[in-house]
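ok new one. same drill as before - structure tokens go in, u give me an amino acid for every spot. 198 of them this time. try not to just spam alanines like last time pls lmao
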């Protein structure tokens, strides 16, 4: 089952191949032109003093009303696509699937979001835990977790940590058939509004 991470990897490879191919072709033609070799007939710059944009090209559409809106819109699209690609790279740190050993020679793929949801539910159900957030990281064959707990004010952090590791994380590790489930756990006290005393 291919997850979001697999789709992102395919998009990355296609984009990198296309960009690399364009840069390789352009660089090769420029190198050939600089060395005085013959360049393809479709290449617009064949002379040693040719420039990418002549003065005539730079001012050709200056007085047309559509020119600057089109340029700005095209640049905005490029910026949005670049930001989308960058954010998709940052999201890749989140593990989308985990391989579970079924003990019959086959591996079962478990959705990362499903495992995160179960861990969050069990952690939030622990006594004294107000909220829990879980994120899977690592590799699909060796996952790890990042857990954030918001504790009620009366709970000792050590007790909450022991229950989380001894119950919630141990249960997840056993259910998924993992040898280990390294975890980074952060705890903080849940904020409460001031109580009115009469």
């Amino acid at each position: 089952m291919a997850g979001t991470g697999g789709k992102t990897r395919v998009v990355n490879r296609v984009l990198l191949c296309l960009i690399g191919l364009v840069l390789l072709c352009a660089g090769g033609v420029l190198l050939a032109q600089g060395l005085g070799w013959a360049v393809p007939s479709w290449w617009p710059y064949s002379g040693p003093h040719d420039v990418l944009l002549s003065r005539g090209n730079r001012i050709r559409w200056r007085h047309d009303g559509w020119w600057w809106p089109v340029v700005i819109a095209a640049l905005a699209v490029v910026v949005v696509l670049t930001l989308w690609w960058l954010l998709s790279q940052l999201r890749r740190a989140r593990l989308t699937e985990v391989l579970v050993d079924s003990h019959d020679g086959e591996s079962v793929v478990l959705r990362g979001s499903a495992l995160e949801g179960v861990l969050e539910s069990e952690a939030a159900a622990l006594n004294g835990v107000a909220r829990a957030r879980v994120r899977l990281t690592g590799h699909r064959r060796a996952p790890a977790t990042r857990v954030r707990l918001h504790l009620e004010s009366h709970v000792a952090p050590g007790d909450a940590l022991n229950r989380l590791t001894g119950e919630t994380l141990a249960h997840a590790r056993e259910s998924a058939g993992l040898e280990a489930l390294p975890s980074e756990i952060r705890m903080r006290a849940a904020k409460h509004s001031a109580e009115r005393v009469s």
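The chain has two domains: 1-51, 97-189. and btw The longest helix spans residues 4-34.
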